[in-house]
Design a protein that fits this description.
This protein is 16% helix and 36% strand. It contains 2 helices and 8 strands; from the N terminus they run αββββββββα. The strands form 2 sheets. Strands 1-2-3-8-7 form a 5-stranded antiparallel sheet, with no helix packed on it. Strands 4-5-6 form a 3-stranded antiparallel sheet, with no helix packed on it. β7 and β8 form a beta hairpin. It is globular and about 40 Å long. The N terminus is likely disordered. This is DOMON domain-containing protein. Its main location: membrane.
Length: 160
């Protein structure tokens, strides 16, 4: 017996409602943090899809960041990087998070991308602390860090 037109319409409506409601809930405003961190700004990055939360304290040139994204495959990784000197990958200061295969815990490593030929874990060119990662219930990974932005970069490159 074929479903009635009303039943088909109801199922179609229900499907789209669930799809839209789950998409709407996955925005910056729906993000919660285990340590009750608060950030002044958040950007939904829908083409990735990911979320960037950040706060900048101009009095001490400190940038606090939370980046949330899902790995492209199970057991994969996510990364967030900033290049303080150019618009290319070379020079980027990257944080990469993944789940440790032995412990199952999320970890974060730093990479100073100095060339395309050899990308290995390395200290960043500027100070970073409170660097942590967490695995979230939806399968995404979150990277947290605080950066000390050098004064010449914080002022837009002008010497003061």
């Amino acid at each position: 017996m074929a479903p009635s037109a009303a039943a088909t319409a109801f199922l179609y409506f229900t499907f789209w409602t669930l799809l839209i409601s789950s998409a709407v809930s996955l925005t910056c405003s729906g993000q919660k943090f285990t340590k009750n961190q608060v950030f002044s700004t958040c950007l939904d990055l829908p083409s990735l899809p990911s979320y960037l939360h950040f706060s900048y304290d101009s009095s001490n040139t400190t940038l606090s960041v939370a980046f949330i994204a899902s790995p492209s495959k199970p057991g994969g990784w996510v990364a967030w990087a900033i290049n303080p000197k150019a618009t290319s990958m070379v020079g980027s200061q990257a944080l990469v998070a993944y789940k440790n295969s032995t412990t199952g815990l999320a970890v974060v490593r730093t990479f100073d991308v100095s060339s395309y030929s050899s990308i290995v874990p390395n200290n960043l060119s500027f100070e970073v602390w409170d660097r942590t990662a967490e695995s979230r219930s939806d399968g995404s990974l979150a990277i947290f860090a605080k950066f000390k932005i050098p004064a010449d970069l914080a002022s837009g490159g002008e010497k003061k």
